[in-house]
From TrEMBL:
Species classification: Eukaryota, Viridiplantae, Streptophyta, Embryophyta, Tracheophyta
Highest taxon, organism lineage: Eukaryota
SUPFAM superfamilies referenced in this protein's UniProt entry, alphabetically: Clavaminate synthase-like (SSF51197)
Domain Fe2OG dioxygenase residues, every copy: 275-403
Protein name per its UniProtKB record: Fe2OG dioxygenase domain-containing protein
One Gene Ontology term of the molecular function aspect: metal ion binding
Length: 450
């Protein structure tokens, strides 16, 4: 049985076989599954506890200035074996374990409201293009790196189905979901499957979400043993959605190429020959402390391009532009497009770096497309806030080129006045370099800059 020992400044909470044990009787466990692991958490903020007489009292929150004294014990594997976030949320505690609390200076701040650009894909893809939409697209590629897409050709019913099967998957009994676990032998993390964050260091701050990762392309490399069998329609619905999203990607790429006065199929060509696509289903349970915890910390995606479908009603996604965080509004049945970022610091190995943690926001964001565009296009830095009342789901498709391929600035964009700003780089090598540079505190982007 795994034992975690995590010290917090305040109360102590033990997850035992019958609920939370310890001195008094703690909140009963939200689920039987939660009780299965014998993990001990000491909670940092407010914990609800019932004393001998059964009366509930609230323990005071730990003043923020003490949070830095909190430390964590246990091996990495132990820490990794902490409960899934869905189980933690099911306990209905008012506290969150220390591993989820971000440093005071990084804690969520109020976001501004601005209109995140909306691009009408139908108009953009008309044979002659639409000048207005193209202007908007240029603005987003050069600054926001994230935009909403309407008129994308994917039926509302299909989008609803994708959301429904995702929700049904996460709402299942833990035992059913664990059939697709991302832990080999219960402890070794692999990218694919169901679970939560990989823990690489005892100071790592965890995100308040669980997810299901599936490599969907190349199709002959699918590991169907981690593809859910329930709900029964899951696989068919996902397959249909993948085909449609591929169409969205392929109608967007020529417009991006045209903006740079490149051959229309320039970017499409880059995705030929066994590109890699990953589908990720993110499940953010209700969180008692949205002021201390992120659903997903600020990051940029280590992809060329990401298609994102977010919850119809529950917001939380924010994007950084010119140093200011903006709420991305919910607008049912729109898609979001993110320009990814092969070119920043990461916290993982090869495909672990699907998302790269952002160490510094002051640098302009670059992405695979940015290298090909010789630095004209930027990627987005974004984050997800938690919600105290509502769960939230998002479905994300991460598009990579063939990882064996090399990328370089398009030759057509280079002349005497516009020299190449980046060297040719193999994507796989670049992703591998991300982790090493992250550990050394250096920037892998510097190795490809000319
Ligand atoms: O859930 C969201 O809105 C964003 C998810 C995201 O950024 C990601 O999965 O990389
Ligand atoms: Fe992301």
């Amino acid at each position: 049985m795994m034992k975690n020992k995590v010290h917090f400044a305040s109360s102590e909470m033990e997850v035992g076989s019958g609920g939370f044990g310890g001195g008094g009787r703690w909140w009963p466990c939200g689920t039987m599954e939660a009780a299965a692991a014998s993990n001990r958490f000491h909670f940092a903020a407010v914990a609800a506890v019932t004393g001998g007489g059964g009366a509930t009292r609230l323990l005071p929150a730990v003043p923020r200035q003490y949070l830095s004294y909190i430390r964590m014990e246990g091996s990495m594997e132990d820490v990794r074996s902490t409960l899934l976030v869905q189980e933690l949320a099911g306990m209905r505690s008012k506290a969150v374990p220390r591993q989820y609390i971000v440093q005071q200076e990084d804690q969520p701040t109020i976001a501004a409201t601005a209109s995140v650009p909306i691009v009408d894909l139908g108009r953009l893809s008309q044979p002659d293009g639409d000048a207005n939409e193209a202007v908007k697209l240029r603005q987003v590629m050069e600054s926001w790196g994230l935009f909403m897409v309407t008129n994308h050709g994917i039926e509302d019913a299909l989008m609803d189905n994708v959301m429904n099967v995702s929700r049904e998957f996460f709402q299942q009994h833990l035992g059913e979901k664990q059939k697709y676990t991302n832990l080999i032998d219960g402890k070794h993390f692999q990218l694919e499957g169901y679970g939560n964050d990989q823990v690489k260091s005892d100071t790592q701050i965890l995100d308040w979400l669980d997810r299901l990762y599936l490599k969907v392309d190349p199709a002959d490399e699918r590991n169907l043993s981690v593809w859910p069998k329930h709900p029964e329609s899951f696989r068919d619905v996902l397959d249909e959605f993948l085909i449609k999203c591929d169409g969205v990607k392929n109608s967007l790429l020529p417009s991006m190429a045209k903006l740079l006065k490149l051959d229309e199929d320039y970017f499409v060509r880059q995705f030929s020959d066994r590109p890699t696509t990953i589908a990720r289903f993110n499940y953010y349970p209700q969180c008692p402390r949205p002021d201390l915890v992120y659903g997903m910390k600020p990051h940029s995606d280590a992809t060329i391009l990401t298609i994102l479908m977010v919850d119809n009603d529950v917001g939380g996604l924010q994007v950084l532009k010119d140093g200011v965080w903006y709420d991305v509004p919910t607008k049912p049945h729109t898609l979001l497009i993110n320009l990814g970022d092969h070119m920043e610091m990461g916290d993982g190995g090869i495909l672990d770096v699907v998302t790269t943690m952002v160490a510094s926001f002051s640098e302009p964001r670059l992405c695979g497309v940015a290298i090909m565009s010789n630095g004209i296009f930027k990627s987005s830095v974004h984050r997800v806030m938690t919600n105290p009342e509502k769960e939230r789901i998002s479905v994300v498709l991460f598009y990579f080129m063939n990882l064996e391929k090399e990328i370089e600035p398009a030759l057509e964009l280079i002349d005497e006045r516009h020299p190449a700003r980046y060297k040719r780089v193999k994507i796989m090598d670049y992703l591998a370099g991300l982790f090493e540079h992250f550990l050394q505190g250096t920037r892998v982007i510097d190795t490809v800059k000319i």
